[in-house]
Amino acid sequence: MIILGSNLNHAPVVSIQTSGEVARTERAIIDPADLRVLAYSVTGALLPKTPQLMRIADVRELSSMGFIVDSIDEFIAPDDVVSLQKIYDLQFDLLGMRVIDQRRHKLGKIIDFTIDTNTFLVQQLTVKRPLFRSLNDTELLVHRSQIIEINNDEIVVHSETKVPEPELHEVVGSYVNPFRKAHPAKQPINEKE
């Protein structure tokens, strides 16, 4: 299922053990290398004041109730998993990032994104256009396949998509004018008399 990333902000986290809400999500922890949501930072009355993360690997299900986990013991500190701590320390946030094309033209800033809930990969970026370009269209959707580069300040996308050239195909049974063919007809061979 594809869902807007903003729908998962401040989403409830429900524990099977307590049969109730134990936390709320704050922000997505996204790996900039492949735009995969690895975890969410969470807060709640039952949680310590130090930063706590809910890894996507520990989520049992994402339903209309929110994220469902086994228990509150599933939450971890950022330094509990070394690979996750490196991503957490980057403080990478898609929202507000500039999007430019290969020619360095500004396309706008990211205001939202869509996530595939099966893989938690970011599929599309919703880009708010600059004021002078927003007269024609206010938002632009950028698919992940269009992304060329992600750096600290901006995301670079392809300048334009190539439209395939139309191909002409002969229809079976259609009339072909022999005088319009690219190859002229061959001269008959003269037989010896």
TrEMBL record:
Residues 93-159 form the PRC-barrel domain. Transmembrane segments: none annotated. InterPro entries: PRC-brl_dom (IPR027275), PRC_barrel-like_sf (IPR011033). Pfam families: PRC. It comes from the Bacteria. This is PRC domain-containing protein. It comes from Candidatus Southlakia epibionticum.
